[in-house]
Amino acid sequence: MIMKNERLLKSIAQARVARLLEIAKSRTVTLGASDRLAKRYVSIAQDITTHYRLPADRTMKTQVCKACKSMLIPGSTCSVRLVGHVGYVVLRCRCGEERRVFYK
């Protein structure tokens, strides 16, 4: 019985994290990088994943800045640079933090 409840709680938590990230992305797209509420949504989603010991969502790993917790949207909140000879893309947030996404 306990295992069933834990699985149910984790599935509900995963759904909430996905919804929070979706709302944060839509707010960032419409209002820009200065939206504090979108950053709060991302922070709450990270708190839920740590509390319920969920694996980080792929969206959270690739589209959220670790330093300022803003959504990384190319052209809006981050700049994109392609490093072809090494095989990765550099996403630079407005706070100055860089993230490398490998594609090879």
Keywords:
alpha+beta, 3-stranded antiparallel beta sheet, 3 strands, 104 residues
Total DSSP helices: 3
Low-confidence stretches: none
Reported for the largest beta sheet, the result is: 3 strands, antiparallel
Overall form: globular
Task: Estimate percent helicity.
Answer: 40-55%
In the sheet with the most strands, the strands line up as 1-2-3
Question: In percent terms, what proportion of residues is strand?
Answer: 15-25%
Distance between the termini: 45 Å
Average pLDDT level: 89
How many β strands by DSSP?
Answer: 3
Rg over alpha carbons: 15 Å
Describe the model:
With 104 residues, the chain is of the alpha+beta class. It has one domain. 50% of the residues lie in helices and 16% in strands. The protein has a three-stranded antiparallel β-sheet, with no helix packed on it. The protein is globular and about 50 Å long. It starts with a helix and ends with a strand.
